[in-house]
Amino acid sequence: MIVTTTENVPGYRRVKTLGQCFGVVVRSRGIGGNIIASLRTIVGGEIHEYTQLLEEARRQAVDRLVVNATAMGANAVVMMRFDSSEIGQMMSEIVAYGTAAVLEEEK
After folding, report:
1. What CATH number corresponds to the domain at position 64?
2. Helix, strand, or coil here: 44?
3. Each residue's pLDDT tens digit in the chain (107 positions)?
4. Environment class of residue 98 by beta-carbon count within 10 Å: exposed (0-12), middle (13-18) or buried (19+)?
5. Range of the domain at 44
6. N or C, fewer C-beta in 10 Å, the chain?
């Protein structure tokens, strides 16, 4: 599966556009991580617990995006983007979305 943030993929031509596809992940920050992160905000700097949480959530969202696109019959996702938001004060939502497409190698 080709996943790209661009509209076109060099060396390939788009045979069919299948429509939008996405992968969604909602992750909760555990109480322990929140306590450690709160302590880190006192001194400043990167909050590694949240960075790790969001990196894992992005990877999982892309994995789900690929599953969704595959189910649609795609072999590529073009114009892939991420979006994120908070739900309440304890959860983060990460969405990976793009356009499912069928690409063919140029001859």
Report:
1. 3.30.110.70
2. coil
3. 999 999 999 999 999 999 999 999 998 866 656 666 666 667 677 777 788 888 999 999 999 999 999 999 999 999 999 999 988 777 889 999 999 999 999 98
4. buried
5. 2-105
6. C
Q: Position of tokens 């690409």? A: 103
- The whole-model pTM stands at 0.84
Nearest-10 crossing angle of helices 48-71, 31-43: 130
CA distance 96 to 79: 10
What is the sign, positive or negative, of the torsion defined by CA atoms of 48, 66, 83, 12?
positive
Amino acid at 30: G
